[in-house]
């Protein structure tokens, strides 16, 4: 794995772009990163109020072990600073990684999964972005995967492009709990595995990822969660033209509200253009359709189109606004268009 791929892996998985480096000596670094945001939210069916967009704080450390090996560790917590109470921090990420120039990268802990490397190409805007990959993403390893071991590597071929791949494994995990009636709720998961591959050339990347694992819901038979997902992207988000598309063919992965879909298809498309003055104009579309166990009739679970804009007042201070159209009026569904305007400050 060439150093250019190694540098990209460490930048993406170990540090924040705007992290403040507090220590850098004798091969050891330590930095603090993250961001805070505040926005005004509104919708057709709801009241206007103040909200946030995934505020977080993280701590990052790296250590040069010699012989081409670099160890790194990350802890990241979501911030709940608008409401009081005991849950001011909740865990987003926590892992230890080991990277070698040629042997690749291994990570243990709660982390962004290899599946997300392929699926997340349209998950870029601050306000409204990819939702379907976050349906129970920690347990199913489609976003920030809980308790995962992963391995990634890549190879560059000069002008012929670059090939990258990743593997992930999550062990058995029983998440069932007793509810207020002393009944078991939740899921018990068996081993879950995933693989992701991508090929990049001339600014374009084509990717494929597969994810599967069995789980048991109390009172129901064992089921298999499975996903085949392909994606394509062109360009770099926030720099000129960026295009991305995602298609997923899933079983027992997505939800219609709180109802698990036995079979579903998900579509995501994103187009953005960042002007020289850093104004980024964005349009994105998402649809999930699937069959419920109750009737096995394919229905639209959600369908949305958003118009968005982001503007960097400074490299660390970004303003954003968006309007999302709810297009899911099938079967007399009551639509609910949403809007917001806000700002994000990167630490």
Automatic annotation (TrEMBL):
Any idea what this protein is called? Porin
What residues does the Porin domain cover? Answer: 7-330
Signal sequence residues: 1-19
How does the protein associate with the membrane? Multi-pass membrane protein
- Similarity field: Belongs to the Gram-negative porin family.
Q: Which GO terms describe its molecular function?
A: porin activity
Keyword Ribonucleoprotein tagged:
no
Keyword Transcription, does the record have it?
no
Keywords (alphabetical) are: Membrane, Signal
| Any one of the GO CC terms | cell outer membrane
Q: Which residues form a coiled coil?
A: none
* Pfam families recorded: Porin_4 (PF13609)
Location in the cell: Cell outer membrane
Q: Name one GO biological process term.
A: monoatomic ion transmembrane transport
């Amino acid at each position: 794995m060439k150093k250019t791929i190694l540098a990209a892996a460490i930048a993406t998985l170990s540090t924040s772009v705007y992290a403040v480096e507090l220590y850098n000596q004798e091969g050891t670094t330590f930095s603090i990163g993250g961001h805070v945001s505040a926005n005004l939210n509104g919708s057709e069916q709801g009241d206007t109020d103040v909200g946030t967009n995934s505020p977080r704080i993280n701590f990052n450390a790296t250590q040069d072990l010699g012989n081409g090996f670099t160890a790194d560790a990350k802890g990241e917590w979501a911030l709940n600073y608008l409401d009081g109470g005991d849950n001011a921090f909740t865990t987003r990420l926590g892992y230890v990684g080991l990277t070698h120039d040629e042997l690749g990268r291994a990570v243990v802990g709660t982390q962004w999964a290899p599946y997300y490397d392929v699926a997340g190409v349209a998950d870029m805007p601050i306000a409204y972005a990819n939702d379907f990959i976050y349906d129970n993403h920690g347990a199913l390893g489609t976003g920030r995967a809980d308790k995962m071991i992963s391995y990634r590597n890549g190879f560059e071929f000069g002008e012929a492009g670059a090939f990258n791949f990743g593997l992930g494994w999550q062990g058995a995990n029983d998440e069932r709990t007793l509810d207020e009636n002393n009944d078991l709720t939740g899921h018990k998961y068996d081993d879950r595995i995933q693989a992701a591959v991508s090929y990049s050339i001339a600014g374009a990347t084509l990717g494929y990822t597969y994810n599967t694992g069995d789980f048991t819901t109390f009172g129901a038979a064992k089921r298999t969660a499975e996903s085949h997902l392909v994606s394509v992207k062109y360009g770099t988000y926030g720099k000129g033209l960026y295009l991305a598309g995602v298609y997923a063919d899933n079983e027992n992965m997505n939800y219609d509200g709180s109802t698990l879909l036995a079979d579903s298809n998900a579509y995501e498309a994103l187009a953005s253009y960042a002007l020289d003055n850093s104004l980024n104009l964005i349009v994105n579309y998402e649809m999930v359709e699937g069959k419920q166990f109750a009737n096995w009739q394919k229905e639209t679970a959600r369908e949305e189109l958003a118009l968005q804009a982001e503007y960097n007042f400074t490299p660390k201070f970004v303003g954003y606004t968006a309007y999302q159209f709810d297009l899911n009026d099938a079967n007399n569904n009551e639509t609910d268009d949403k809007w917001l305007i806000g700002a994000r400050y990167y630490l």
